[in-house]
Hints:
Blueprint: H1 3-13, H2 16-40, H3 48-51, E1 53-54, H4 57-60, H5 66-69, H6 77-94, H7 100-124, E2 136-137, H8 141-154, E3 159-162, E4 166-169, H9 170-184, H10 190-211, H11 218-231, H12 248-272, H13 279-289
Antiparallel strand pairs: 1-2, 3-4
Helix pairs in contact: 2-6, 6-8, 7-8, 7-10, 8-9, 8-10, 9-10
Amino acid sequence: MSITDEIKESFRKGSVLTRLIYVNIGVFVLIRLINVVFFLLGKDLPILPWLALPADVSVLATRPWTLFTYMFLHFDFLHILFNVLWLYWMGRIFLTYFDPKKLLAIYILGGLAGGVFFLLAYNLFPAFSDIVQFSRLLGASASVLAIIAAVATYAPNHPINLLFIGQIKMKHLALFSIVLYVIGIAGSNAGGNLAHLGGAFLGFIFVVFLRKGTDITTGFSKLVTGGEKLLKPKQHVKVSYRGSSDPDIEYNRKKNVKQEEINRVLDKISKSGYDSLTKEEKELLFKMGK
Length: 290
């Protein structure tokens, strides 16, 4: 099996978490390979503006799909490295409390919430009025923060071990992260930090409503299930008939007679042992076990 086949098989049999990681890495590799081609041609890469989420609403109107595609899009290596690592670690913790369908739903909904926060802030606050037409959002950070916030809200005391720090609780990690993102709004990555807060808000709201008996991921999960049914190839049921020359009644009669004979042999074994069977009975037992 080639490496390509192994990757395809791993993706096909992998969990939702595995597939999300594969998609993020796959898109990153593809974009960087295309970038090499355009670099050699002496041209700028034209793909990113068509996949990243623009802050300018008039541009978004011509590229509505970017509200979805941006959350799978990375260009810098460290950006995707940290996002994929956090997605893997926090995704595994998430799956100890919730099912895989909810993981996918929170990833997508968290990304959408992060995109909405980004768009609202850049179009409402005067601080961004001069840069709104040049600003774009990309990366899975908002989706990852939604997963972290959901776990921190549902299981605030869940312990995690951090390098150089040791064991802390999920609620402390989430709180510290949110404080950093709020402070970072006044920094060079205001859009990213706003998106992080949007994702965290979605994760928090998900658990709050879930505890009240409302699962906000239900609609999305049904949509995904319906899509899977449409994409899944139809299986053709092959009907085979044993002893097709016999009518159904005759076939059932023979089947019942055979079952009675098997029961009699088994009953004989239980009473007198295997050695008490005749040659014909042993052959019947042998055929039954094949």
